[in-house]
């Protein structure tokens, strides 16, 4: 498949690019600073989510699948995490791309949960993710999957996971999970979760 990763210079995005390349997909990584990416096995293009949806569509081009893994780390939640994501959805539809996979956060669609820690410390982030996720679900005709990850940890992955039974998840295992979703059409139109665990990620979503 031809696959475009939005936010491919981030921690998860790079792991995803490596996993997809290992699976012999044609991977294109979009980043505001593509020159800073050590691109081994995939292509890079300049993508600025503050630009118009038409410019975003031009950068993405014709592919089979779009991933959204971008994040501003709280620096520009409206322009990047919320409306930036929406522009990539508009771009996908403009380019007649059907498959779209969103990396989101556990409890992003449950505002009641944000009143308590640890979510209350990141309430504005969850608000941005909620807006993006709801737009994807309710206002597009894309074949979407939303992966809600628990707290990301920079630790070595082991290819194992579970459905949000733990409070953290290794970043490499999130990348692996996203890559597996590309081949799991049974997750289209579904919200799925990932955390550390003891189940094989390659088979975790076969019965989603």
UniProtKB/TrEMBL annotation:
Domain NAD(P)-binding: 7-183
One Pfam family linked to the record: NAD_binding_10
Secretion signal, residue range per the UniProt entry: none
PANTHER family: FLAVIN REDUCTASE-RELATED, UPF0659 PROTEIN YMR090W
InterPro entries associated with the record: NAD(P)-bd_dom (IPR016040), NAD(P)-bd_dom_sf (IPR036291)
Protein name: NAD(P)H-binding protein
């Amino acid at each position: 498949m031809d696959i475009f990763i939005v936010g491919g210079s981030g921690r998860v995005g790079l792991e995803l690019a490596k996993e997809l390349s290992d699976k012999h997909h044609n991977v294109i990584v979009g980043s505001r600073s593509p020159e800073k990416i050590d691109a081994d096995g995939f292509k890079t293009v300049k993508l600025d989510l503050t630009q118009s949806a038409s410019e975003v569509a031009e950068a993405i081009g014709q592919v089979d699948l779009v991933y959204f893994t971008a994040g501003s780390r709280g620096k520009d939640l409206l322009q990047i995490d919320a409306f930036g994501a929406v522009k990539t959805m508009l771009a996908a539809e403009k380019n007649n791309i059907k498959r779209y996979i969103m990396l989101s956060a556990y409890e992003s669609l449950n505002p009641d949960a944000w009143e308590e820690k640890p979510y209350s410390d990141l309430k504005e982030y969850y608000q941005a993710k909620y807006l993006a996720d709801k737009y994807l679900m309710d206002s597009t005709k894309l074949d979407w999957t939303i992966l809600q990850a628990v707290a990301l940890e920079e630790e070595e992955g082991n290819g194992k996971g579970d459905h949000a039974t733990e409070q953290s998840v290794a970043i490499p295992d999130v990348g692996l999970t996203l890559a597996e979703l590309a081949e799991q059409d049974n997750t289209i139109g579904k919200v799925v979760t990932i955390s550390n665990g003891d189940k094989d990620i390659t088979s975790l979503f076969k019965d989603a």
